[in-house]
Amino acid sequence: MTKSKGKVRSEKGQFVDDLDRVVQLKGINLDGGAKFPTKPSFPTHKPLEGHEGLFFDGDHVSFAGRPFPLEDVPSHINRIKSLGYNSIRYIFTWEAIEHEGPGKYDEEFIDYTIEVLKIIDDIGGIYVYLDPHQDVWSRFSGGDGAPLWTLYAAGFDPKHFQATEAAVVQNFYHNSEDPDVYPKMVWSTNYKRLAAGTLFTLFFAGKQFAPNAIINGVNIQDYLQSHFINSVAYFVKRINDKAPELFEETVIGVETINEPNPGYIGTPDASKIPDSLNLRVGTCPTIYQTLKLGSGIPTELDEYRISIFGPKKIGTKVIDPKGVKAWVSDDTYDRHYGFKRSESWKLGVCIWEQHGVWNSETTTLLLPDYFNVDHLSGEIADEELFINRYFVNYYKDYRKAIRDILPDTFIFLQSPPLEIPPKLKGTNLVDKNTIFSPHYYDGMSLMFKTWNRKYNADTLGIMRGKYSNPVFSIVWGENNIRKSFRRQLAEMVKEGKENLGEELPVIFTEIGMPFDMDDKKAYRENEFSSQTSALDALGFALEGSNISHSWWTYTADNGHKWGDYFNNEDFSFWSKDDIEEASFPGSSGSTATTGFDSKAYFNEHSISVTDFDSDSGTLAGSSSLLKSQTLKGPSSASSAPSHFGLRAIDSIVRPFALALEGEFVDSEFDLSKLEYTLKIKGKDTGDITPTLIHIPQWHFPSDEYEINVTSGKFIVEEGSETLQWFHENGYQSISIRNINAKTAQKGWLSYLLSFLPCFS
């Protein structure tokens, strides 16, 4: 893929290029490892025991070096490009910028980020948008994102989160080399525990729910929000000041915040688990139970497991903090960070008790509906009010801060995942440079870490209350599951257009499947059929509506044992443990790994190590045949070695429309038949402007495919995987078919063997 020409734009609800062709942004999140620092390196499986001083020294950390060393940037970026991808969602955290204390920014990290972006810009062909990432608020509450000082600002003592179960943090638990002994992380229940539940409530609506929480002269809501917004704005401004050329083509925008959460807001009864909380694993406290535990009171919690029919209670468990409180008891951190609290905010006492929600002496819940009422307006504070008022108020301030620096940049608006977006259509808060950026994960595959071909559930339908009983949400058969995914994604796009405006493009900034399915069977047996089928189902769903997307994720440190080094997640499309192996297409499109030894192959065929260019990911000296108007495809070794280490490659390498000269109608890639079809309503531009299609050699190798079109001519330039199709106006279609699919399914070894003439 060549360097992009001009900046991608938004026009009539689509991304378009400088020739007004509809562009699909197809890419990946980079990098999963950005969630924790390089110094000291603290992945979530690293035990706290023996390292307490390092872990809780939140001031002196460094994220410089993320996502990977500068010398490794070209190889990783070219590997991503070898997949045909044209965009990256670039992950950074609030902690990486402002960890030392309020208003103290890490210039080394910012400078390092600029150098990484410069290399990506020099390589070209990749659009980047910046993602201020968070999960469950912070590393210190079980996720990533906010710096440690924000927890002290809210009055917490994170050293006591384990005893009080204020948060499930894997670092707090086991000093073990066995990943299976760590607690299963479930975002939904951790978000509702004391730490994250309180912090998100304060962040988005502290003025409504904690009016007495005044710090440095402002409500805690304004204090936290302003510091977060200012840190991201500073980050963006420094990039623009030092390297403004990055925003000319490569860096196209900034996302609002990853997966915003209402915390406790919208809970009808603090003594009950909301019916909407369908994902429950392990202990699952009510809000009231989290408050009691946080104040050191022994509490009996329900324990759950998940099933296809919803959460199932399996027993109870008594948690006894033994008098330990989750609240900081003295002003040590206030003095250290310069916090000045109002007299009405007492340290060492639950912030919600101080607002009359409950009484710790009598252990009495006084206001069970406290978090379901806006205490300024008296309105019901449900999910809709959270999204359309509290989140929108935050978005308004964030948007202004970014647009004051970059007036024309894209703002990627991400509201709470799988929820209906805010009703902003026709307001001045959306414009042609606003992008709706939802997320989608299949609940069953995520929870059970398996690809069930027999049945699944309509995740979005459950979220929308479509079914009176979860049993009615079941979808039977793999073909229907694939269609269900397609319907769900199309419905989310429709909701975005209806609520935000038809002029807004949509991009799923996260979508993916776990690779450690079936108890990591793939790593024991070198067989990735489940992952391939699951990812192919999502690919089918995305292609059906030509939806832009960023796969979750690429993690340079990924390994089979610890996955993405974060809460036992394993989503990375690439793994260093697979660098010596290669995927190949098996029967019916399933994928296995061959155990292929690339070094031995190179030695056997007298290919020197110097023939492999690690920066560009190409074999030196490769040649290709001249392509023109012909039914036969190209022959090139241009991207072969870049594929080393990629998993389920059949599904993650896919043909797609890079640029459409006309309107999209339909497309599908049939992995079992190795056939791609695209239908459009074309514009008649003669030989001037072609539709561009990415045709990966992985599926369509040299001289093994045929092309049929309804009109016009096509050409594939030498050394390219891009087909140019000059077509007439009106409804047109093109099909690209591997004419010898069985031979192609011999896989990676035959793919490399086809390059031998290049070295004769």
UniProtKB/TrEMBL annotation:
SUPFAM superfamilies: (Trans)glycosidases. One of its GO terms (molecular function) is steryl-beta-glucosidase activity. It comes from the Eukaryota. Signal peptide: none annotated. Gene3D superfamilies: Glycosidases, Golgi alpha-mannosidase II. GO terms for biological process: carbohydrate metabolic process; ergosteryl 3-beta-D-glucoside catabolic process. Residues 654-736 form the Glycoside hydrolase family 5 C-terminal domain. Keywords: Glycosidase, Hydrolase. Pfam families: Glyco_hydro_5_C (PF18564). InterPro entries: GH, GH5_C, Glyco_hydro_5_CS, Glyco_hydro_b, Glycosphingolipid_Hydrolases. PANTHER family: ERGOSTERYL-BETA-GLUCOSIDASE, PTHR31308. Belongs to the glycosyl hydrolase 5 (cellulase A) family. This is Glycoside hydrolase family 5 C-terminal domain-containing protein. The lineage of its organism: Eukaryota, Fungi, Dikarya, Ascomycota, Saccharomycotina.
